Amino acid sequence: MMWKILLRWGVPLLPFVSMLLLCLIVVAVMAGSGDDGEQESTNLDTNDSAYSSTGLAPEIERFRPLFEKYAQKYGMTAQLNVIMALSMQESGGRVLDVMQSSESIGLPPNSILDPERSIDVGIQHFKNVFQKAHGDIKLTLQSYNYGGGFIDYVLARGGAYTKELALSFSSYEASKLGWQSYGDPSYVDHVMRYLKATPSSGGVVASGDFKKVMNEALKYQGNPYVWGGANPASGFDCSGLTSWCYRMAGVQLPRTAQEQFNTAKRVSETEARAGDLVFFSGTYAGKLITHVGIYLGGGKMYNSNDSGIEYSSITTGYWKAHFYSYGRVLN
Questions:
Q1: Which of 14, 161, 169, 235 shows the smallest number of beta carbons within 10 Å?
Q2: Is the separation of the CB atoms in 191 and 141 below 8 Å?
Q3: Whole-angstrom distance, CA of residue 156 vs CA of residue 222
Q4: 284 and 51 in contact (C-beta within 8 Å)?
Q5: Contact residues for 303 (Cβ-Cβ < 8 A; gap 6+)
Q6: What is d(CA 60, CA 62) in angstroms, rounded to the nearest whole number?
Q7: Ranges of residues in the chain whose predicted pLDDT is under 50
Q8: In sequence order, what are the beta bridge partners of 282?
């Protein structure tokens, strides 16, 4: 089995480059046009998170390019550092099933013998748990250890993770199964050893109206971009997401990015704060304003684009090149 894994990393250069060019052409052709259309950002900012990592072993850090690749693929770039910290707790990078993700697809532990496959499967599973947990990081982490049943258990008891619920669930499951113990009730604490909070990095740390907006917006993280979508049933394009989520804070926004720009109060970069809108121009031919996102501070936004509903950096790459202005709609 191992020689197959090694062979993967030694693929001939010419076929690989040819396939890469073909993929880039397909992406370019599929890029949308028309009102509120966006193109995919080609730059990955791995700091789009409320946490930065600390104390990760070299055995985990060596896989960072793979974590970045699949976090981007599944719209989880904002949680990259959390995922890597989880992997540090799961394996420390010392086994091939780096994220211990075999069981998430019904296989015995450590059945996956390819680190890239483990990370691919693990991030898919993390995304599913994250969405079911409505973006509650601690609930997501504990449920990665316990299984999705813990989310149902918590939702029936107030809806938010607590250590007390983690302990009671472990006791409940152990008693039901006739085991001495069940899972790791301190799993969240163990993962958090490898993380430190960085509120200014673009993570959602807010109160008041902005918190109402983001509580709604985070329900849809990782969902696909839908042209013309303006509600959860249909999905969301860029301005559909902002108009829907700001309504949760009592702010009625017009439907399109251009109309929202016309309504918003202009603010400078130094005045911009979390909860403002951030506008872009030239992402397709047509109106002046062609894309809008929710500004989070720290050079980050939350938006619906061709990669899905996700966090994005506005200080690098595609979005920096098309940035137009900030606008205020919250008091």
A1: 14
A2: yes
A3: 25
A4: no
A5: 238, 241, 291, 292, 293, 294, 309, 310, 312
A6: 5
A7: 1-49, 199-207
A8: none
Strand positions, DSSP E, 3-74: 51-53
Q: Write the pLDDT tens digit of every residue in 174-213.
A: 999 999 999 999 999 999 999 886 543 333 334 478 889 9
* pTM exceeds cut of 0.85: no
Q: Which two tokens stand for residue 243?
A: 């108009």
For tokens 């981007």, name the residue.
Answer: 72
Active-site residues: which are they? Answer: 238, 291, 303
- Residues in a beta bridge with 309: 304
Q: Return the H-helix or E-strand segment holding 33.
A: none
Which pLDDT score is estimated for 50? 58
Distance, in Å, from the CA atom of 282 to the CA atom of 267, rounded to the nearest integer, reads 20
CA pair distance 79, 48, nearest whole angstrom: 7
Return the pLDDT at 29. 31
Torsion of CA 85, 131, 183, 60, to 10 degrees: -20
Q: Which residues face 259 on adjacent strands?
A: none
Sheet strands (E) in 18-138: 51-53
Residue 52 tokens, joined: 């930065």
